[in-house]
Specification:
The protein is mainly alpha-helical and 255 residues long. It has ten helices and no strands. Helix 3 packs antiparallel against helix 4 and helix 7 packs across helix 10. 27% of the residues are buried.
Length: 255
Amino acid sequence: MSFFYLLPFSYFFNTRLRGGSVAFHLIFEWVAAIVLVLTIGIEDPAPALATAGLSYLAFISLYEIGYIVNDLFSAKCEDGGRKRGPQESNNWWVSAWFGSRIFIFSAVTISLGVFAAPEWWSFFVALSTVFALHNLLQDKEFKAATFLWLAWFRFMAPIVFVIDGSQLMGVGLAAAMSYAGFRIFGYLDSKALLSMPGRQRPSFRLFFFLMPLAGILALWPYKEASGFVILSGYFAVVAVLGSAAEFVAPRAIGR
């Protein structure tokens, strides 16, 4: 397993995705990113998707460093911290995991030709700063704020360098209100900071993702809001289909 963790995405897969959240990340992150790249991307589909994929690889390489620090070091200092990952690992392996990810991030940066691009570095410096704060803070209420922003960076990472710049504000708003806004409920619940037992109901999820339709109604005449309209509309459609599937499945089983 130590060799396996030298590969970017391996740590995320083994410590987070195996818990059953693959479908969520697939539908609400990766497919959503593909939809945005294909509809408001600044390049033809093939190169745009390739750039998005490499951007995600750069993102997950740095993000997993944050995961490793969180699981192997910060969690030990946090009251009730979840000690995921290989707790018995020695410093040599941890350093090797860090090094392989820094190497991959650097290689992607060079291959995309963005080594001198200020927007590339400002995005990833901001992401790294927020994750460092998240790992250093001991106050659970403060960590809720950093988690919210980490969720936002996670969604934006594959698309921020690929979609039309005029649409970034709209997409960022939709990602903050819908994607990051929904994920914060789960985080607060895991930290015993949320008293909202009904949040896991399908009806709540449907209502939550349908509410941005009000924003769509208000903003659709503005061409700069196309990203907001597309992303919020996508989430609404997914929520409706998911609720319909959950409604039909029990009835089919009952037959």
